[in-house]
Amino acid sequence: MNMTGKQRIAAPRQRVWEALNDPEILRASIPGCQSLEKAADDRFTATVEVKVGPIGARFKGAVSLIDLNPPNGYTLILEGNGGITGSVKGSAKVHLSEDAGGTLIAYEVDARVGGRMAQLGGPIIDATAKQIAGKFFNRFGEIVAGVAQQAEPSSVKATASTVTPVGAPAMLGTRSPVLSGGLPMAWILATVVAALVGFLIGRGQGGASSDWVGLAIGLLLLVVGGAAFEYGRRAAAPVVMLDNVLLRRLIEGAKE
Question: Which member of 74, 120, 121, 133 has the greatest number of CB atoms within 10 A?
Answer without folding.
Answer: 74
